[in-house]
Each structure stands twice: as structure tokens, then as C-alpha cells.
Amino acid sequence: MNKRLRNDFILLLGILFIAGILLSFWFFSFKKEGKKAVVYHGENIILTLDLYKKQRVTVDGDISKVTLEVNYGNVSVIESGCPNQICVHTGEKSKEHDVITCLPNRITIVIIGGDSNE
Q1: Among 94, 15, 104, 30, CA closest to 63
Q2: Quick check: 99 pLDDT over 80?
Q3: Cα–Cα distance between 73 and 55 in angstroms, integer?
Q4: Which long-range contacts (CB under 8 A, 24 or more apart) does 73-77 make?
């Protein structure tokens, strides 16, 4: 019985060791740098935000100011003076090619990856 318990313990340590190696490989291969949000007013780029720097930025739109928040890899519109507030209700976006648009203010936020050109 004692030998079986020892073998089970060795097997458990081996599985945990392999799981630790796989988890560390996944963690260190996860790309955190380079993902950005490009803010357009009409067709012009007015701002580029690093998605991994926590920040709050206000930009001027056509009818009001638009406040953007970057938090832990996500970007969202938290305040806008537009009448329908669709941009605010869109919520947080984080995936490459996601878009948030405030049509009355002509503000568009597009998420790009690190290897993409603006």
C-alpha cells in the first residue's frame, strides 16, 4: 500500500510539473504589448492609445466632447453628448478590428494589433 501511495504521489507531481510548464508557456507567449486603439475624427487619425496603459481621454467631436476609457486591454466610450448614446452602450471592446462609433460626433475607435499599420 505504501508503494502505491508513493507512485500516485510521483504521478501527481509529474502532472503538476507538466501543467506548470504548459501554463508558463501560455502566459509568456500571450502578447500584451502592441495592441492599440486608433481614434478617428472623420477620416483623420487624432489619437492612438496603448490598450495596456490605464487612461481616460477626452476628444472633441462635432457636437460634443467624447470621453474614452482604456482599462486592462479594453477601450470604451464612457461619456458623450450625443442624443442616443449608442457609443456609450456599446460597452468595452478589446479584440482586433473591433469598432466603436459615435456617428453624431464623427468619432470612430478601431482596435489594431501590434503588427498592423495605421
Answers
A1: 104
A2: yes
A3: 11
A4: 73/32, 73/35, 75/37, 75/49, 75/51, 75/100, 75/109, 75/111, 76/100, 77/102, 77/107, 77/109
| pLDDT level of residue 4 (50, 70, 90 thresholds) | confident
Helical H segments across the chain, by residue range: 2-29, 86-89
Residue 117 above 50 pLDDT? no
User: Look-up: residue for cell 473591433?
Assistant: 98
Rounded CA separation 51/73 (Å): 5
**Averaged pLDDT, 45-51:** 93
